[in-house]
Automatic annotation (TrEMBL):
CDD domains linked to this entry: DsbA_FrnE
Pfam families xrefs: DSBA
Naturally occurring in which organism (per UniProt): Coniosporium apollinis (strain CBS 100218)
GO molecular function, one term: oxidoreductase activity
Record protein name field: DSBA-like thioredoxin domain-containing protein
Amino acid sequence: MPYDSQISFTLDTICPWTYLARRRLSRALSQVRSSHPDSPVKFHIKFFPYQLYPEASKEGEDKYEWYKRSKYGDSDEKMKMYMALMGAYGKDEGIAFRFGGTVANTLDAHRVIQHFQEEKEEEVAEKVVDSLYSQYFENEKHPSSAETLLKATADAGISDAEARAFIEDEYEGLQDVKMLIREQAGNGVDAVPYVVIEGKRRDFTLQGAKEVEEYVKTLEQVIKES
């Protein structure tokens, strides 16, 4: 019997580990779909919001200086080590991490992801998320400015008029997103990435950015048990 398995992917668009996890999980899904073409299980991704820094302002502040101060004790040396490490991880996944730009509140980015995930098909939400990641991490763009959000929706094939009408009404969908964030915290999510893959007999929870092989193994276990 065919079976739909939801992959609940909890993320923040300014978390580099969720970007890595997104790329690795995408690779794993491609591998599993091609190696199991007759599988009765159809995997679907659904994104859920999480805010690493809910107290961040909308305007934001310098990303490099913020990271150096808040994570690495104002040490340029430790910051260089972090950049080298993330650069190496990113290279393996085709991500060219850059560390300039602005770190800011991501609530509006989550608002856009959730709205168009509900309104459109799955692939549209995936394209919005991927654009937000690449703009922030590889092009040093503000994570949730109107310009960034309009570029993400355009990259997903959403008309400018439809996207602009939603993005410019800053209260539309806001309470829904805040409620989802609270629900995630209530579900025990206290860090991201947090991935739950639904199985017929049991669900599989993967916390942190796993290797492609681990995602493949888990997806195949879901198929095996269905």
